[in-house]
Design a protein that fits this description.
Length: 326
């Protein structure tokens, strides 16, 4: 195994100079640094993680806080996690995955023990209890998702409110007057998860602004729930002609349920789904790529799937306010 003394001998410097080059604790000349880096590459030297941590007071580890909760769609979640891990390795960092739902206690434990240099926080809620702790940590953190009050925090996400609005605007441009959002599972809304709430907010705001009759329906992520939802929608809203889906597991079952009830997608019913590419590619009926999800954010790409049709004759009367059905 190559040691730091081997690197020093090869680069014709002292072992302490190699240590300074690795830790950055003391300035060294650019020529010396380059010679050391060349020797490290040529010899295949890898610094001992424990020793490096002691020398630099850094663990080279990022804590990915990903509580596994009911209603989370794991294929999409793991796209985010994989992207984080890949990006971390490109910067010579490892990822510590915190999956247990221990909330603030888990983050505080890892922060105090210096097991991670920074944190990435997922499944962010509108009134997330972790925020006061994150604001006071010495280690930096980045939230994938926006709470209601992001002051003092670094947050990144897609604009889910704009996505909900864009879906309604697209349906309205086709002449639809009665639309419905089939959203995330009920427990996701109950927790106040930011992305789900924002899609619903954007959907409702656009429908109100454009004078459409709209409704929002949380839906459990099972084929049976998708079948029941299709039956409920057509029973409660006979004039329904446009559906927005923001629930990956029920996208295909819901479209299939409409088809088994005699509706053709897109000829009889327009469907717009906010989902990753693979869901769009597997969905029955017409589809058109757009924009959703992970790769630019966690660092996995996606797109709305759009089934379009010429609607029934538009209904001019003003609609009632949008309603939520649980």
């Amino acid at each position: 195994m190559v040691k730091i003394t081997d690197v020093a001998r090869h680069a014709n410097v002292s072992p302490s100079t190699v240590s300074y080059a690795l830790s950055g604790k003391r300035p060294i000349s650019e020529e010396t640094r380059r010679r050391i880096e060349d020797s490290i590459r040529e010899l295949g030297y890898r610094a001992h993680a424990g020793a490096r941590s002691l020398a630099s007071s850094r663990s080279q580890v990022i804590g990915l806080v990903l509580p596994l909760r009911k209603g989370m769609h794991m294929p999409v979640v793991m796209q985010f996690a994989t992207s984080v891990a890949t990006a971390a390795r490109e910067h010579d960092h490892d990822v510590l995955l915190l999956t247990h739902n221990e909330g603030e206690e888990g983050i505080d434990r890892v922060a105090r023990s210096r097991m991670a240099d920074a944190f990435i926080i997922m499944d962010v809620e509108m009134d997330d209890r972790r925020l006061p702790l994150l604001r006071g940590l010495e280690q930096p953190s980045v939230l994938i998702g926006f709470p209601s009050d992001p002051a003092g925090l670094t947050c990144i996400d897609l604009d889910f409110a704009a996505a909900g609005e864009a879906c309604v605007e697209h349906l309205a441009s086709l002449g639809h007057r009665t639309v419905a959002l089939v959203g995330s599972p009920p427990e996701v809304y109950v927790r106040g998860t930011g992305f789900a709430r924002r899609v619903a907010t954007g959907f409702t705001a656009a429908a109100d602004r454009l004078g459409l009759c709209s409704s929002v329906h949380p839906c459990p992520e099972t084929p049976a729930a998708a079948q029941a939802m299709a039956e409920q929608l057509l029973h409660e809203q006979p004039e329904l002609s446009g559906v927005v889906i923001h629930n990956e597991p029920v996208t295909q079952p819901l479209i299939a349920a409409f088809q088994t009830m005699g509706l053709r997608v897109p000829q009889d019913l327009s469907v717009v789904a906010i989902c990753p590419d693979e869901t769009a590619e597997q969905a029955p009926g017409g589809r058109e790529a757009g924009a959703d999800h992970p790769r630019p954010v966690g660092a996995p790409a996606g797109g709305p799937v759009m089934g379009q049709r010429a609607p029934r004759a538009p209904r001019p009367p003003p609609p009632p306010p949008a309603r939520w059905t649980f």
